[in-house]
Amino acid sequence: MSLSDLLILLPQAFLLVWASLLLLVDLFISKERKVITAILGAAGLAITLGLTSGQWGSRATGFNQMVVVDNFSVFLSGLFTLAGLVAIVIAYDNMRRTGIHKTEFYSLLLFSVAGMMLMSAAADLIIVFLALELLSIPLYILAGLAVPRAGSAEGAIKYFLLGAFASGFVLYGTALIFGATQGTSLAGIMASIQSGTAELPLLVIGAALLLVGFSFKVAAVPFHMWTPDVYQGAPSPVTGFMSIGAKAAGFAALIRVFSLAFPSLAGQFAPIFAVLAGLTMVVGNVAAVSQVSIKRMLAYSSIAHAGYILMALVPLADPSVAANSTASALTYLVVYGITTLGAWAVISAVENADGGDTSVRDLSGLARQHPWLAAAMTFFMLSFTGIPPLAGFWGKFYLFRTAIEGGYTTLAIIGLLSSLVSAWYYLRVIVMMYFRESEAGASRAPSIQIAAILLALAVLVLGLFPSGLFQLALQALANGVS
Asked: Which pLDDT band holds residue 356 (cuts at 50, 70, 90)?
């Protein structure tokens, strides 16, 4: 290990040290001044974001080529840190109001973000596994932060048990790939395949096991069973962060591994990705229609959006569309992240003070009491649906275009039809807010309301000027994954 190795992972190392120190500093902060802990947590993420941004445009490997810093990792690390910042802004007031303000939340959140950042920089399957555990273990605890509420305990236990099971798939898949190629480095695996020395049957089985483990993280059907219960039981700010952070980290691993280590196997896995994408879109949207709880509705919605992003992985074997395909996935991850964090910010504002489950009806009349929150939620629901000129429309447009260019027109049609189904339950939320008798109350904390409004404006601006984000996603591939 050299100084250059440490400099490559400086943002992750800084965040881990900051999170550890935050645990100690919090012991000396009185209960009446715990806002200081939240501010320090946000400051750590802001500094990390600055350190990460400074790495844009560079490419370097470290720790014997086990980690790589390139635009791809910087792009996703920026998404993770911004998601963490928004989660802290939402969480402070919400958790105080619902009586579950536990300040270890901030350190656990920072540990999880560090794991996600490491996942995006992983160039070795061992680092992929370590990053998976580093991001997952804090999330297991955060999901149960509302204990002793039964729903929180149940969701956390399910998440832990199924998460451990999925990690086993990743570890066993890594072992099989090592046996097939005599290495765990992604570059080494690709070299072994190209030289013809790899044991292809064993390699394919190992890659399939990795796909199962990553599919759990992104909540793809049929590995989605944990999602509704965990989303419903976890505190709303935790759910909002988890819905984008864990999903984006899972896709970071999928893109990095299957485009770098297994490019020659991409054609064999294309039908599997197509089936996964189609099932995930259909099951997620159809199941969401009947949900009364808005948390469970957004959980199934999250599953459906994972299906949309999976469409981008189907044509990876075609070099002519691979770059646009990956850029479409990155673009949609950003659009989905902004939209879902905004939706969970509104839910955090209207959530009952006792922390009970929030139904769609609890949003009734929100437009009369809190018109700005209702307007922001309207933007988020329309963006989820894919209505122009909001960002969600362009996110889906890029994904559908990629599928069609890759020759998967049927998959694009399935995505379009499933989006029409989603309009039913998204528009129902808008109807409740504007055309039902007033029942909704909301937090008066300006932090949550400002966050929701700013995120809604971001959805609108990205919808009016979509090419900038897509070009940035293409730049993220310029010196990394292609």
From this structure: low
